[in-house]
Amino acid sequence: MPWRETCAVEERMRFVLAVEAGEEPMAALCRRFEISRRHGYKWIERWRTEGVAGLADRSRAPLHHPQAVPAELGEACLAVRRAHPTWGPVKVRAWLERKHRGRPWPAASTIGALFDREGLAVKRKLRRRVPPGGPLFAADAANDVWTIDFKGWFRTGDGVRVDPMTLADACSRYLLRCQAVAHPDTGHVWPILDAAFREYGLPLRLCSDNGPPFATIGAGGLSRLSVQVIKAGVVPERITPGKPQENGRHERMHLTLLQDTAQPPAATLRAQQKRFQAFRRTDNEERPHAALGNATPAETHAPSPRRWDGVLRSPGTEPGEAVRQVKSNGLISWHGQLVYVSEALGGEPIGLAETGDGTWTVRYGSILLGLLKHRGDRLERPRKGADGLVDNAARCPQGPQPPQPQPART
Question: Based on the domain organization, do 370 and 293 belong to the same domain?
């Protein structure tokens, strides 16, 4: 015959009914049902106080959790996360500690588990770890290096193209400008740089990629914009082509900018610019940065002591250098021949210095443009390994200098 199926609740019911019948002693019933007398009395008590419901299994979870996050603190963490979806648990905790000093906030791992339970955590794809790339130029203090770049263009809801240009201080991470420009060219970028120079002073260096309008493939990589930057008293510097990790902190900021302001884009250009302004305020004044010890950029940035009067001055030349004025078509006259230098330098003086072996180095301020050899009818690029940039701080430590008197042409 088949085995009779039963369950724990049915067995407990049979046990308590047998006890209530009073036909056998308690000890004998407990031996027959293979339970201890302590458990037997427990089920009898539950039966008499709760009825059949008392014979069901109860959860063994503790009724009180001393280490549980209080509901008030948990809701505060969730509120910050909902307001800033790109902030992780470390930034959320740092922000709460700054806003509510003295309160014991949960650990970042606990806050992360809270986000996960509430469906606010974003799972990232595992990526192969590669050696990190460091910045090309050290920025040990505010205004040592400013970084400039364009975020990839996109269109607003009404189809208007948006080219966001961003300008930031590399040391303090302070976002100086975040603005959509009509065209990514010198005519639209220079007014933004001019306004930033007037408001925050001059940095020592301005780092960019190798694309227009920041650079060209011409002599020294100079563009019309970089020439104006030099005349303002700032050294233009460029990352290695194909190495965006050398400007990694700026690229990482662009990722957050995209997530916070353009997913999805705003309906109009005006609304999109309002998003950029709100992002700049939040990034500068509220968002903690781990590289700054969870301080905000506004707390670590200070205006440059190198104030700018708005006058563009051509850099001076070294004593003993021959000086030539670049024509509007980019040519100079040298030893009876016309040598092409760069149209970006039209109207600017350049210095030529002989090295002793019949070769002449051609410079615009601190920028090595190339070499003139032999007949001197063609400007040759510097050999591989020379990037065309030298330390301008030693030659122009106080920023732009007034034009120097030029020697007579030979």
Answer: no
- Cβ(253)–Cβ(173) under 8 Å? yes
Q: What is the CATH number of the domain that holds 285?
A: 3.30.420.10
Assess if residue 202 is contained within a domain: yes
Contact, 174 vs 298, CB < 8 A? yes
Residue 320: its pLDDT value, please? 85
How much is the average pLDDT of 234-261? 91
DSSP classification of residue 210: S
In this predicted structure, the answer to whether residue 396 has a pLDDT above a threshold of 50 is no
- pLDDT, residue 375, reads 66
Is 90 within the bounds of a domain? yes
Write down the H helix ranges in 144-268. Answer: 186-200, 224-232, 248-261
Cβ-Cβ contacts under 8 Å for 30 (sequence gap 6 or more): 36, 37, 39, 40
Bridge-based pairing of strands 161-169 and 322-325 is unpaired
| Cis omega (within 30 of 0) for bond into 264 | yes
- Is residue 405 pLDDT above 70, yes or no? no
The answer to pTM > 0.85 is: no
> Do 289 and 180 belong together in one domain?
yes
Alpha helices in 204-337 (DSSP H): 224-232, 248-261, 269-285, 297-300
Q: Which residues pair with 206 in a beta bridge?
A: 146, 236
Segments forming the whole domain that contains residue 77: 71-117
Helix, strand and coil percent figures for the chain, each rounded to 5:
35, 15, 45
Q: What is the pLDDT of residues 88-102, one digit of tens each?
A: 999 999 999 988 888
Are 323 and 350 within 8 A, CB to CB? yes
Same structural domain, 251 and 347: no
Q: Is there a single domain that holds both residue 177 and residue 288? A: yes
Phi and psi of 272, rounded to 5°?
-65, -40
Residues 355 and 262 in one domain: no
The string over 133-145, giving b where at least 16 C-beta atoms fall within 10 Å of a residue's C-beta and e elsewhere, is: eebbbebeebbbb
Q: Residue 173 belongs to what H/E stretch?
A: none
Domain presence at residue 273: yes
Q: In which band, very low, low, confident or very high, does the pLDDT at 124 lie, cut at 50, 70 and 90?
A: confident
Q: What is the per-residue pLDDT across 356-367, written as a single tens digit (0 to 9) for each?
A: 777 889 999 989
Is residue 48 domain-shared with residue 165, that is, in the same domain? no
3-state secondary structure of 315: coil
